[in-house]
Write a structure and sequence with these properties.
With about 160 residues, the protein is an alpha+beta fold. It is rod-shaped. It has four helices and five strands; from the N terminus they run H-H-H-H-E-E-E-E-E. A five-stranded mixed barrel has the order 1-2-3-5-4.
């Protein structure tokens, strides 16, 4: 067989469609568990190749694999440009992210403890949190005073006086 015969080989019957279709579904299933977004485009590319296999065009195995590889690569590389994916954006699934910058009410404390931290308790949206007062602040806080939440780390809120 010469190279032209391999490249222009006729469709590989319905088997090629089902191979690419099932392969795309498999990639999509793996993507659902991983959530990386990269396999999504490979699954879409497999779907496109599967549909092309149904057309009856001379589309041999080599061209199928080449089309799959090129489509996967191009769609994967263009994703950040067209979908505006930002790694610096807040995680939508992080429920604590909405608390940053908001006011909380002091319940108790902010006395100096061993280790040099000033700890106490605050309430935000009806939920009580252990809190740490920022290092720069030496201000005395009493119950019902307001503080601003700066960040949440390891189950504690880090605050500064409002």
């Amino acid at each position: 067989m010469d190279m032209n015969a391999i490249l222009l080989m006729g469709p590989m019957s319905m088997n090629a469609f089902w191979f690419w279709f099932v392969f795309g579904l498999l990639l999509l299933g793996i993507e659902m568990f991983l959530g990386t977004q990269w396999l999504l485009w490979a699954a879409a590319a497999a779907g496109v190749v599967a549909v092309i296999c149904l057309t009856g065009l001379p589309f041999g195995l080599f061209l199928q694999a080449l089309t799959f590889a090129v489509l996967s690569l191009v769609m994967g590389l263009l994703t950040p440009k067209f979908l505006k994916v930002s790694s610096h954006s807040p995680d939508v699934n992080d429920p604590h992210r909405r608390m940053v910058g908001k006011e909380a009410e002091v319940l108790s404390g902010f006395e100096l403890v061993s280790g040099g931290e000033r700890t106490g308790r605050v309430v935000f949206d009806g939920v009580e949190w252990p809190a740490v007062l920022g290092e720069a602040s030496q201000m005395k806080l009493a119950a019902s005073d307001r503080v601003i939440i700066e960040r949440i780390y390891e189950g504690r809120v880090f605050v500064r006086p409002a």
